[in-house]
Amino acid sequence: MTSILRTDANHNDFKVLVKKLDAYLKITDGDEHDFYNQFNGIEHLKHVVIAYDNNKAIACGAFKIFDSNKVEIKRMFTLPEARKKGIATKILNELEDWAKEIGYSTIILETGIRQTEAVAFYKRNNYKITPNYGQYTGVENSICFEKKKIEKLKKKKDNEKG
After folding, report:
1. How is the beta sheet containing 2-7 ordered, strand by strand?
2. How many distinct structural domains can be found in the chain?
3. Res. 156: pLDDT tops 50
4. pLDDT of 155
């Protein structure tokens, strides 16, 4: 049975999964790994989600605050043996719900063009390709996505009052 835990970057299971993610990315990113890796530190991530199957950590994801309206998805990873079972979608949905609960309306993210599975995954989950932002502006091997679907709870509550 799959369960989901909300935690932060200090959780050991998250650290173990991120090491596996980094090993994978080192191969797929090739010579550009050091460039991308500089933006993937986990020490300041306060919003981390871990999926478990029979008490074994099998997937993770996180977000960090980007600005007053946006959060940025970071460190999404599913163990190879746990893929194609909908677990990454559960992680992503939990991150979206959490962002909405704390008042954010938009989610952004960057992934590499070479991560074709990730690109297809975000498209399946209603993320739209957007111009590259921030440090990814002008980086040809980056592809950025955005999802504006989530609405701030405050706005929703205001509408219920009116």
Report:
1. 2-7, 47-53, 56-65, 70-78, 106-112, 142-147, 128-130
2. 1
3. no
4. 42
Structural domain boundaries, residue 111: 2-161
pTM of the model: 0.86
| CA-based nearest residue to 95, from 114, 80, 84, 109 | 109
List, for residues 57-82, the tens digit of each pLDDT value.
999 999 999 999 999 999 999 999 99
Model pLDDT for residues 43-59, shown as the tens digit of each residue: 889 999 999 999 999 99
Closest to 6 in 3D by CA, of 86, 101, 141, 78: 101
Q: 14: domain CATH number?
A: 3.40.630.30
Beta-bridge partner residues of 111: 143
